[in-house]
Every structure is written in C-alpha cells, then in structure tokens.
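Supplementary Methods, section 5.1.

A reviewer requested that the exact input to the structure prediction be made available. We therefore reproduce it here, unchanged from the version used in the analyses.
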Amino acid sequence: MSKTSLALGNFRGYSILIVLGFHSVIAYIVSQPAAPLPFDSPPYGWLANPIVDPDRWLGFDLFCATQFLYMMQLMFFLSGLFVWPSLQRKGARAFLYDRFLRLGLPFVLGVSLLMPVAYYPVYRLTAADPGWSEFLPHWLALPFWPSGPLWFLWLVLAFNVVAAGLYRLVPRAGEVFARLSARAGSDPIRFFIVLAAISALAYVPLARVYPPWQWVGFGPFHVQASFAPQYAIYFFAGLVIGTHRLDRGLLAADGMVARRWGRWMLGALAAFLLWIVPTALTVKGEGAPLPGLQIAADLAVPLYAAAACIGLAAIFLRFAAVRRPVLNGLSENAYGMYLFHYVFVIWTQYALYDVALPGIAKGAIVFSVTLVLSWATTAAVCRTSIGERVIGGRRAEPAAAKRALSPEPNQPVA
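The structure derived from this sequence is encoded token-by-token as follows.
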C-alpha cells in the first residue's frame, strides 16, 4: 500500500475523532443558552444544542470554533476523492445501486429508528411527563423530522447522483478533471486560491442572510443554508483531485503540500484569527461602529476552511504515511461510528446532567464513552453479512484506494 493511501486512511480515522469530539463537548461550551430549550417551541434551538449542561469550560468553545468552520468541508472532500475511480470501475448504474444501499438505506433507517432514541433525552429535560409514550406524540407533532448528523448522508448521496450523471452524460469529463487535478498537484497555491475564492463567492452572500448555525429543509432533509454550497464545492474538489493518481498529485506523500505543511498550518491559524477577532468584537457589540468587520469575518471562513483542510492533509502526508493500527481501525469503522455515535453522545450527556463535575471532565467522559461504544457497536454490526455489506469499510476502501492510485486505461495523467 502506498504512503498516500496509508496517510489518507489515517486522515479518515482522524476525521471521525473530530466529529465525535465536537458533538461530545458541545453541551459544555460557555456560549450555550442559559438553560435547556423547550422541545415543542420554535425555533427549536435544541437541534443545534441538544443538551444544555450547567457545567461549562471555555476551552471547549475554542475547540468547537476551530472545528466547526472546516469539519464538514473536510468530510465532503474525503467523500469525493474515490468517487470517479469507483464510477469507472462499476459504471453509473452499479455505482448508484451501491450508493443508495450504503447511504440511502442507513439514512432512512437512522432517521426512523436511531434519531428518536437519540433525541428522547432532550425531550425528558423539559417535559412535564417524560415517559416514552408521551414523547412519541410530541415527536410526531414536530413540523419536521430531525435527522441529527445523518443529514450528511442524504446530501452526499445527492452529490453522488450528480457525479454519476456527469459520468454518464459527459464522457470526456474524466479527462478534463484529470488535467485539472494534475495542475493542482503542480501548483497547490493556485488550487488553494481557486478553492477559497469559489467558496467565498458562494458563502459570503448567504452568510449575510443566514447565520452559520441556521438550518433549512423539509421533512428529514436539512442542511445549513450558508454552508451548503461549500459542501458541494469541497465534494467536487475531492472528486476532481481523485481522477488523477493521488500518489503523484496534490496528495503525494513527498509532494509540495506535504513538504510545506508548516506554512499551510500557519496560514490556517492566520485565517482563524481573522475570523475570531472580528466575530468576538461583533458579539460583544464593540465592533458595531467599524464598517466591514462582519464581511472580513465572513471572508475569513472560506480561507480558514481551505487552509485547514489542506494543512491537515499535509500533516498526515508528511508524518502519518505509515500504518497506525488505531487510526486504521478508526478508518475502517468510521462510517458506522458516524451512524451510531449521536445516540451515545446525547444519552451520556443526559446521564451526566445532574452529576457534580467540571465541564471539562464531563466532556472527556462523553467523548470516551462515545468512542468506545460507537466503535464496539460498529464492529458488532459489521460481523453480520448485511452490516458488512452496508456499512463495512474493509472490502470497499482498499479496492477504491488502489484504483485511485493508478491511472485508468487510456486516461491521461496530465
């Protein structure tokens, strides 16, 4: 297995740790509402803050801020990397069948079965009658169907459908994408500028209308309004990069991105400071007289997301292009852990609600419990043939990675 493949596997394992960590500690950030939010009353703020614990730790605010602005962009980028090789290997029809099985079916089952169980403790915190029989009518009376973090599945499925349409209807699209990918590998700075610029054009106008935490949608199909275009951009950026040999392009283990990892991370830090300083001034009301302060903060978001994604990839390509058993295990079970983790997050936060512990201790406990139980649950489910077929990663990932690391027959590599 190539160094790039090993690094990307470890990077995928890291990405699920970040998701689990973010959801585990969000109950303990200082900027949470003062008290638990009513279950039945608009604007249904518990969708963003399911459990509001009285014990807080300011460090979690900083951690959540640094992750929130790039975390899902990274997930969509990684999701797009192996899409085109998979389309070339399977064809559009078989590819879509596989995607509907691995994404559509878990979304339907997760929203129908897992999410009511996950959100039940949220109802119990403010309910006069916390019984399950009383919860179900309240749940069904909601004007939407909460999908929690499973919104990612339906959206990435929609992007896969678009990708399959491109593959089927535009036969030479792969050649164009491969040339773009090769250029990105030879000039990473230009790739960063283009990625950040397109993201800014999509994000800044929407950010003036929708706050980053505002969701829109219908039924179980929800998405963050201001971030949705960025998710599409990062998915298709990953798709384009994946059409060229990964070990010879932008994500080469010995390439320019990996060699300059320090510069990328310094750039990400600068972009984050460009966002957090005006944001803090605006929240406190001290920045109101300064024109353009909010626009500067909005422009910093796509800059930070692009620099953070590239910088973190550079770190893994430079220092983690070897087999790491723990990260490898996380990578293989990442999908299942994403599916199951929210149940363990919210129930553990609920169990600790009345426990006299510092917020930092509660966050650490929730993360540890969620990591162990979601990993164990995924491993158990994948021991069944159906579970391995639908959410298992051991069979599909190596083949996809091997395919992406070598050019297709008759496919140009420059």
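The radius of gyration is 21 Å. These observations are discussed further in the main text.
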